[in-house]
Structure formats: structure tokens, C-alpha cells
Amino acid sequence: MRLLVVNAGSSSLKLQVLGPDDTVVDEVHVEGWDGEGTGPLRDLAAEAGAGAVDAVGHRVVHGGRDLVAARRVDDGVVEQIAALTPLAPLHQERSLAGIRAARAALPDVPHVACFDTAYHASLPEAAATYALPAVWRLRWPVRRYGFHGLSHAYAARRATAMVPGAERIVTCHLGAGASLCASLAGRSVDTTMGFTPLEGLVMATRSGTVDPGLVLWLVTDAGLTPEAVRDGLEHHSGLLGLSGTADMRDVVAEKGLGFDVYVHSVARHAAGMVAALGGLDALVFTGGVGENAPAVRAAVADRLAFLGATVDPEVNDTATPDALVSPPDNPVAVLALTAREDLEIARQLRDLLA
Predict the structure, then answer these.
(1) Which of the residue ranges 20-24, 41-45, 149-153 has the most confident prediction, judged by mean pLDDT?
(2) Residue 75 lies inside a defined structural domain of this protein
């Protein structure tokens, strides 16, 4: 099977053709994609060779309560995905645009949707439930969904392959969006993002967790509109709000308040993930920051040294993922891994079609 993986982001379209052994046969990254047109998909399919694409896998951010595993795409599944748009408006719309464009370009092959929320469907009730009025929880789908599940699932499985016997794994997906996940024997048991991708860690432009009372105060006392608060929390907070830049390279170079708050946020939440696991066998860094910012890995590991998660400074500074960056005899393995959501999508797609 040759698979086309479609990853439609908020402003970009990433396409990859994977061979039977999961090697990347061809790929296209379209920046500034507006969600329209099938040209990139048709061109890539043509470059790969006539009839070379046997199936298409789509990354979809939100699956809600019902779409908790990979699903073959039909009109009904498209309607279910569209109904979840209010929970992730920007990402969900682009996922739908990618699905529509791919189905138009390649109408004769199966299409499969893989959901970022699905890996966290296994969360224990205690971890997934918000302490809200019962009538709210019964009336509306308010619960912790979690995100980045495709990345967390792949990273946890890859860590187990590199560190045989590791079952209690904390994966740190650190990119523009960032979240942590506690995986126990291949199942998500806790994560930092919640009902929306805004909860949890400090991110590039998102605030992460803030006091709900502060949000209410900004509306009722400071006079901001809900739209202005949403825009501020989503697009002008995080590293951008603290350091004036969302680029981690600049934040690391400055080593100011933004860096300190970011590291504190990751380490604090990581310790919470360890509590959910009852211990720690492996700490994994992935995503653009996790892979390429050794200073962040070192600073977070230093905060978690009491758990046995330390790095070898020389190895960490020069490591190219996938790599073990902790000393060989360390009680906790610390790894830097390349984010490969495409491989997780391919695995789920092949399992479903098989």
C-alpha cells in the first residue's frame, strides 16, 4: 500500500506519500494554503506515479465524544466532523477543506480520518471530568478531550521501542502548540490540554491555563469583549506576550522571563503527569521545540532531577533525534524524538483497512 497523508494546518497544507515500508516517497508543504483547490493533491498523486496512491489518511484535530478511533470517511463522518467545528473552529475547518479537496482529487480510493483527540478517549473518568454543575455536564459535551494525540501515541510507542520495558512515559509535544501526555502501557491516562487546545502549558502565542476568574474579570470589570479576550489568549499571549517573540530560538538566546515561565510550566505539568502514572520510566521531548531546543530539554530535566530525569549535557547539546540524551545508567530515560504524526496516521489507516 502507498498512502497519501494529508495534514491540513491552520495556514498550511502538508502532504506526504508513504511507501509500503513507511518511507517518504514524495512530499509537498504548501504555506499560506487557503483551504481551496485540489491542485497540490493532484500534482503530488501524479508525481508519485499513476495509481500509486492506494488510500488517503487525514489528520483531524477534534473527534468529540463519538469519533474515538480512525474512521473511513463518508458523508456522515464529514457531517460529524463539521458539527464539532465550534470546539476547534480554525483547525476543524481546515481539516474539512483538506478532506473535501482530497476526495475531489482522488475519488476512487478510500479516505480515513484520524483524530488527535482519539488517543485520549481512554482517559480515566477522574482525569477527563471537570468539576462543573451536573446539569452542565449532562447538557453539553464538557470534558477533557486532549489534543496532539497522534504525536503522543507515536512518541510513546517509539520510546518503548528504544527503551524496552518502559511503560510509564511522559511525552512532551513542544511546538507552537504544546501539550504533555502521561501514557501507561500505551494508553493515555492524563494530558494537559482540555476541552480546547488553550488549556495547559504556556505556548508560542497561547496563554495556557489561567484562572477562570481572571477571564471573567477581564470581561465584567476591565470591559473587554469576549472576542477580545479570546483573541488575546489565543494569539497574543504565551511566549509572544512574555518575550515579544514567539520564536523559541530568540527566547532561548535571551534567557529572560519568557524562558523561565515556559520551563516552569513544562516542569510543573510534567510532575503532575508523573503523579498520574505513579512513577516515570521515560521522558520524551518531541515537536519543533522538543527536537531542536536542547536548552529547554536541559532546563526541564534539571527541574525534574529529583525524579531521576537528567540529561548528559554533551550528548544533549549535540543530539540529532531520534536520540537518547540521558546517561546510559540513568533511572529515567530521556529522549529527543522526531514528531511523526504521519507514521501514526499510516498505522491507524492500515489497521482499519486491514
Answers:
(1) 149-153
(2) yes
